[in-house]
Specification:
Structural class of chain A: alpha+beta
Number of helices of chain B: 13
Oligomer: heterodimer
Largest sheet of chain B: 10 strands, mixed
Radius of gyration of chain B: 24 Å
Radius of gyration of chain A: 14 Å
Largest interface: A-B, 41 and 50 residues
CATH architecture of chain A: 2-Layer Sandwich
Shape of chain B: globular
Structural class of chain B: alpha+beta
Number of strands of chain A: 6
Helix content of chain A: 10-25%
Strand content of chain B: 25-35%
CATH topology of chain A: Alpha-Beta Plaits
Shape of chain A: elongated
Number of domains of chain A: 1
Number of domains of chain B: 2
Number of helices of chain A: 3
Strand order of the largest sheet of chain B: 11-12-8-7-1-2-3-6-4-19
Strand order of the largest sheet of chain A: 2-3-5-4
Distance between the termini of chain A: 24 Å
């Protein structure tokens, strides 16, 4: 099964609130969105960030925007002004998620086309 | 249908002022709203206030006012800002001082106070008000004695009141970012306190605008290379109709990009549950929002839903959480990473032998893993150079400062080809954040609005 890095498929932005990071991921079309709903689960994201996210990861789908919001708790080593990390505001979490590879299967649709 | 135009002035303390000047000059806006306060900004301003009781507001308010007050006078623009930070009254005096310097008379400068609840915590506790953490229910007793500031997130109400009193400039402390943008809509359109969907549209507009450039092509993860002229980015401007529908745009001729793609990234930014974003003025549901491109740099935004506002307000408290000491220096190819790792080993060994008691030691290799931590991939080929950063956490400022002293000896007695030592860095106080929910009445009953005419 072909594996594709999210980098070539989605838009994503991350931000912080306290020790929590949220990552919003956007698909360009419904075919990709369906695929993400199946492949990009909260468990998968939690596993990806092993060692960086201590708490739980919750996924909130927003189908009308072809979007999903991942809320990662215990993600910043204490949070903005208490963290020792260089990325103390979690701005790079979304970029980091782009490394994740998902199985795209056999498809005729161009998944990165809007 | 009536519309009003609102401009985003600033997305944080330290943001560029040029886009706001551009909007004031040519943006045809009735209001400019400045969000100065990120979560950790109050921590910075609190330190300023501790050093000097007349400080504690965002210091760039002086230059902001010097540049913008002439437009406020000339064009009748109203300027709303939360730059008051930990000292809104001081900020009000500063605005009045600048107006005086510029020879402007008859300006009304309003201030909203009451968000600073630090000196009320004791009374609240004696009344049985819980300060338990809003997310995990954790008991606050462990941090109680270390709290250095406590501020409630106010809603739009007091700002609306200040507008009704004729204010030209309104300075607040901690107010919910989006509420600052909502206030002019309530004032202009007379929206009622239970018109939840309209309030929700106003809050959504504020949410999209409060991070300035982030809704205009900044920090855009999509095709960022196609965004033109970020060096002269235009901050977002909203054209809001009386029924709440709005178009997000920016001033003609400025750089950046306002498109459905750039705006949607901001839509969910720092939101948790998209169907229930809690604000003091309404609970916002963005799951039915539609973003439609409506010509170049114009995005039509509809579909925000609102439900009843909560009976609580969020209070964020900062507490002392030790000191951070750090040192940064670099190594050259060949074997740059191996050299840096050996230097790390040497410094850690010295720390042990000198018996420095650090609660935590954290090492980053800049150029390799400082942003992605354990998820960074091993470099495919040798790095040209790598910088090493060692950070320590300790309860003692003096011990934090000692870390830097361990580095210079490595120049002569460590791995070869070391350079770029950034010098002795001042220890930084770490502040933890504690959020809780309190009944809104106990905060709102002491909010005050006072207007100073200069």
């Amino acid at each position: 099964m072909p594996q594709v890095q999210l980098r070539s498929l989605v838009q994503a932005r991350s931000g912080d609130k306290g020790n929590t990071v949220n990552i919003a991921v956007f698909a360009r079309n419904e075919a990709l969105y369906e695929l993400l709903l199946r492949e990009l689960t909260a468990e998968r994201v939690k596993e990806h960030f092993g060692g960086m996210v201590i708490g739980e990861v919750t996924r909130y789908p927003v189908p009308k925007l072809l979007a999903m919001n991942f809320v990662c708790r215990g993600a910043l080593g204490g949070g903005g002004s208490a963290s020792m990390r260089m990325d103390n505001l979690g701005k790079c979490y979304a970029a980091n998620l782009m490394r994740l590879e998902i199985e795209v299967g056999e498809t005729n649709t161009n998944l990165s086309q809007s | 249908m009536r519309t009003i135009r609102i401009g985003a002035g600033q997305g944080f303390y330290g943001d560029s002022l040029l886009p706001a000047i551009e909007t004031a000059k040519r943006g045809n806006v009735g209001y400019l709203c400045f969000d100065s306060l990120a979560e950790l900004t109050l921590a910075i301003l609190q330190k300023d206030r501790q050093r000097d009781a007349s400080k504690g507001f965002a210091r760039d308010i002086a230059v902001t006012m010097r540049e913008l007050l002439p437009f406020i006078r000339e064009k009748g623009i109203k300027l709303l800002t939360n730059a008051g930070g930990m000292n809104p009254l001081g900020a009000q005096r500063e605005v009045a001082r600048i107006a005086g310097e510029l020879g402007l008379q008859g300006l009304k400068v309003a201030v909203v106070t009451g968000d600073d609840v630090l000196d009320r915590l004791q009374v609240w506790e004696s009344q049985g008000i819980s300060l338990a953490h809003m997310e995990d229910g954790g008991d606050a007793s462990g941090i109680r004695s270390r709290i250095v500031f406590a501020n409630a997130y106010l809603g739009a109400g007091p700002v609306v009141e200040a507008l009704r009193q004729g204010a030209d400039v309104i300075v607040t402390g901690r107010i919910t970012d989006s509420a600052l943008f909502l206030a002019p809509l309530i004032y202009e359109f007379g929206w009622g306190p239970k018109e939840w969907d309209r309030l929700a549209q106003g809050l959504l507009m504020g949410h999209l605008m409060e991070c300035s450039g982030q809704a205009a092509g900044g920090n855009f993860s999509g095709d960022w290379q196609s965004v033109e002229a970020l060096d002269r980015i235009g901050f977002p401007v909203a054209e809001v109709r009386e029924d709440g529908e709005f178009v997000l745009t920016k001033t003609e001729g400025t750089g950046g990009l306002v498109s459905a793609d750039t705006v949607k990234e901001q839509l969910l930014y720092e939101i948790h549950d998209p169907s229930a974003y809690m604000t003091p003025d309404a609970v916002l549901d963005v799951t039915n929002v539609r973003l439609q491109d409506d010509g170049p740099n114009r995005v039509r935004v509809t579909g925000a839903r609102g439900t009843k506002r909560p009976e609580t307000l969020k209070v964020v408290m900062g507490y002392s959480d030790g000191w951070l000491g750090q040192a940064i220096w670099g190594y050259s190819w060949p074997d740059a990473l191996a050299k840096a790792k050996e230097a790390d080993r040497i410094v850690r060994s010295r720390i042990r032998r000198m018996n420095l008691r650090y609660d935590e030691i954290h090492t980053d290799y800049l150029g390799y893993n400082s942003l992605h931590g354990p998820l960074a991939r091993e470099p495919a080929e040798q790095l040209n150079e790598v910088y090493l950063r060692i950070a320590v956490r300790t309860g003692s400022r003096e011990d934090a400062a000692k870390l830097g002293r361990l580095v210079p000896p490595l120049m002569l007695s460590g791995p070869p080809a070391m350079a770029g030592f950034l010098g002795m860095m001042k220890p930084r106080e770490l502040l933890g954040m504690w959020s809780c929910l309190v009944p809104r009445a106990i905060v709102e009953n002491v909010i005050q609005i006072s207007v100073l005419e200069v």
